[in-house]
Amino acid sequence: MNRGVADYVIRVATDPHDLPLQAWNDLLRAQELPTPFMRLEYFQALHASGSAVASTGWQPQFLSLWHGDELVGACPAYLKSHSYGEYVFDWAWADAYARHGLSYYPKLLVAVPFTPVPGARLLARDAAARDALVRGLQALAAQLQLSSAHVLFCSDADMAALQGAGWLPRHNVQFHWQNTQQTPREFKDYLASLQRDKRKKIQQEQRRVREAGVRFEVREGAQISAQDWDFFYRCYTLTYRAHRSTPYLSRSFFAEASRQMAQHWLMFIAYREGERLAASLLALDPERRTAYGRYWGALEAVPCLHFDACYYQPLAWCLAQGYQRFEGGAQGEHKMARGLMPVGTQSAHRLAHPQFRDAVAEFLAREGEAMHDYVNELEQHQPFKKA
């Protein structure tokens, strides 16, 4: 791929361990919205643990862009044989293809498996390298005769490059807490900033947890022991079992991720009468003072324990540590009552079939208008006191 007098070379890796760790992470640090989930160690842990591999429907096709011996672009791409673990739903598109006798799968997906966290997806040295990555994705999809290509939860820079190449934008919403200079560093003062009914409900929910005899301990980074991880994983699998589902991530994934990325994990463990009862897991970006709610589970149901373990304890910790952002994960407008406000997310899609592309474009335009109206409506229900 020519860039003036210099040549770009694109390579496709079927194992993230084949890519240069330091060079990938250096690219990531230079992006507008890096997250720990885009570190190469994270993808390597997913692969080594068998969590995101061809046999689970995630066949790696990682693109790397080279200028001589220098890595100037990269992205985590997968051939997908299903749409599980993505959180941007295209089941209706796959069904429409099937009803017309066409194959929607496999498709090409650029995403962090099982992780609906917005951030940079096309790691690039500059705009030219990002455009080259987009052309590389299109060339790979065409070469493999795929129905479509998708980039999920991408950054603004990614979206600009993708839309510039004719990809279709899709918009959704999540709920994040963001700190301000006016926000206090103690949870009781944070509660005082909420409207009276919201504050009272949170206080009642925390009171019910305390009256059940539950207390919390927090472990950060290397403080999280192997026994802590074992207990957390037991809780994690119970959550999936309660929903009659199968966990996406294996115990060995958490072992590998905790070994290679210890500084990026925070765990809250709930105790009752000295016995462990529940656990919630957050990921951390200490440099950017951002926390990400990830997983939770409990050995038994305790009223309001989920809210305390997944929202109130993390928010109190973020306030005390001076963190500026807490992302509560996908979906859930109930999070607004806890002070997590709507934030737009975006993805981009390219469909090879022209008639299906036109139909999806029309659908996304209508969906985008509805999403805009939905966010505007949510903004009218602020949980905070009016200034």
From TrEMBL:
A Pfam family assignment: FemAB_like
- Write down the InterPro entries for this protein, in alphabetical order: Acyl_CoA_acyltransferase (IPR016181), FemAB-like (IPR007434)
Source organism superkingdom: Bacteria
Query: PANTHER family given for it?
Result: ACYL-COA
What this protein is called in its record is Peptidogalycan biosysnthesis protein
- The species this protein was found in: Paucibacter sediminis
Top-level taxonomy: Bacteria, Pseudomonadati, Pseudomonadota, Betaproteobacteria, Burkholderiales
